[in-house]
Design a protein that fits this description.
The complex is a heterodimer of chains A (122) and B (383). With 122 residues, chain A is an alpha+beta fold. Chain A is 48% helix and 22% strand. The chains are: A alpha+beta (122), B alpha/beta (383). At the A-B interface, helix 1, strand 2, strand 3 and helix 2 of A face helix 11 of B.
Chain lengths: 122, 383
């Protein structure tokens, strides 16, 4: 069902955990569907210095959480804004029924960036 | 180490069964309908197999029909009754947590104009006899209620159910695929009983239907009038022989051993925080432990266990083709979010204490790590 890259991300997920004084937090998904993703970013001088996630979900949800944070780490906010579900799923080649997991990961990243920008304006 | 705890899905063919079946592929390969020695040898083997199964079900040999498995037996029993007795009415009673081969058959009959009542389950996974009594009307033709549930292993009181059906004059069918040979299921408990070989160390693709004398079913297949003209198709002789051998394989001692190991697995696993057993502890199949782990998702647990060589299954939507959580778990009142974190461990007569100990050692760190990743219990030590 899953390819090697997905299983590698699932076996050895990167960046999981919480950032205590995060610059932005993205919370997406819902418990009823079985997939919930919290994504934390720490931004310094417009660069994502640290990024972490907490996910309740299936193998694909955990793998995409790991993947999206790897893609965004060290990027500028402007670069990170361009990361889409296509970037996440390109690497992982998820089965059709699991495509929505890659949406969730990209959505969580964008939600965290939006939260960061909202906080910055205040 | 490879540990197979998915015996409710299917089992390994036992050595005894395999040995018994082998000659029927290359040597005793006759068609049971043929009059020469090859054919008669096959025919005798089938009739001997029928006798073994009939004895196990306390039935007459003429009441046993071989089919391709549980799904066909359930289809034949329900469709066959509904279509043959449609002059009696158009109503069927079943439960919300039947196997798909029963539920989908009922749904298809609904499209033909039959009405179906789906009985609810309590949180223990049992039906209410009062509700059953109320559900049966003068339009009811058949009641179909599974003996042991395939996901949570809860066992219904068939003697009482059958008594009610007899009083009301309706035919009673039970899907006993999970319970056959692991319980005392027999012809005194139902009019129609579905069984399958591959759940009891027999081969896949073979099952049987017990049909009480006097009940006639409209057939699903037309052809050479095999199986007392109820089920046409050249008999699968090796598989039939395998089913018969499997029928007497699980002993009382095996059942006692499975109960002991199951109870150990349940007791120790429930020591992990925020877990619970799905379905009653008492009226439960000897080999089933279905446990929910809060805050995490079943497919992830399943594949983490798989990395350690442990094979189980889950009721999580994420592991299902339709992305819907288990209808069984929802039927006993679980919330969708709680159904996602369920794992079914199903043992066999070959499961050892060493294997259970290994599972109990591997499981807590897996649950703990997945909970560490989960936003609902992030960073806390839950085990």
């Amino acid at each position: 069902m899953y390819n090697k890259k997905v299983m590698k991300c699932f076996k050895d997920p990167k960046n999981y955990g919480k950032i205590k004084n995060a610059s932005g937090i993205g919370k997406v998904g819902n418990e009823k569907c079985g997939d919930v993703m919290y994504l934390y970013i720490k931004v310094e001088k417009g660069i994502i210095k640290d990024i972490k996630w907490e996910t309740m979900g299936c193998v694909a949800a955990i793998a995409t959480s790991s993947e999206v944070t790897e893609l965004a780490k060290g990027k500028t906010i402007e670069e990170a804004k361009k990361i889409t579900r296509a970037d996440v799923s390109k690497e992982l080649d998820l089965p059709p029924i699991k495509q929505h997991c890659s949406n969730l990961a990209a959505e969580a990243l964008q939600a965290a960036i939006k939260d960061y920008e909202t906080r910055k304006r205040k | 180490m490879q540990i197979y705890l998915d015996n409710a899905a299917t089992t390994r063919v036992s050595d005894e069964v395999f040995r018994e079946m082998t000659p029927y592929f290359k040597n005793k390969y006759g068609n049971a309908s043929s009059l020469h020695d090859f054919g008669q040898e096959a025919n005798n083997s089938i009739e001997n197999a029928r006798k073994i199964i009939a004895e196990r079900l306390k039935a007459d040999i003429k009441e046993i029909i071989f089919t391709s498995g549980g799904t066909e037996s359930n289809n034949l029993a329900i469709q066959g009754t509904a279509h043959n007795y449609k002059d009696r009415g158009n109503h069927i009673v079943t439960t919300k947590f039947e196997h798909p081969s029963v539920l989908e058959t009922c749904k298809s009959l609904e499209k033909e104009g039959f009405n179906v009542t789906y009985l609810s389950l309590n949180k223990e996974g049992l039906i209410s006899l009062e509700e059953l009594k109320k559900a049966i009307t003068n339009k009811t033709i058949i009641v179909t209620i599974m003996h042991a549930n395939n996901e949570i292993g809860t066992i219904q009181d068939l003697k009482e159910i059958y008594k009610i059906c007899k009083e009301k004059g309706v035919i009673f069918h039970t899907d006993a695929v999970q319970s056959f040979s692991k319980t005392d299921i027999n012809s005194e408990m139902a009019d129609l009983i579905s069984i399958s070989a591959h759940k009891i160390h027999g081969p896949k693709g073979i099952g049987a239907l017990y049909i009480k004398k006097g009940i006639h079913l409209k057939k699903l297949f037309h052809g050479g009038k095999h199986e007392f003209n109820v089920r046409s198709g050249t008999e699968n002789v090796p598989a039939i022989v395998g089913l018969a051998r499997a029928t007497t394989l699980i002993t009382k001692k095996d059942i006692e051993k499975m109960i002991k190991l199951r109870d150990k697995l349940i007791k120790e696993t429930l020591k992990i925080k925020d877990t619970w057993l799905n379905g009653t502890k008492e009226k439960r199949l000897c080999n089933n432990a279905n446990i929910s782990f809060k805050y995490i998702e079943g497919e992830s647990i399943l594949l983490r266990l798989n990395e350690k060589g442990i094979a189980v299954s889950t009721g999580s939507a994420c592991a299902a083709k339709e992305l819907k959580p288990s209808h069984v778990l929802l039927s006993i009142g679980l919330k969708a979010e709680d159904a996602h974190g369920s794992i079914r461990f199903s043992l066999s007569k070959y499961t050892t204490e060493k294997e259970i100990n290994y599972v109990l050692k591997q499981l807590p760190p897996i649950i703990n790590q997945l909970r560490e990743m989960s936003p609902f219990k992030g960073g806390e030590n839950n085990v």
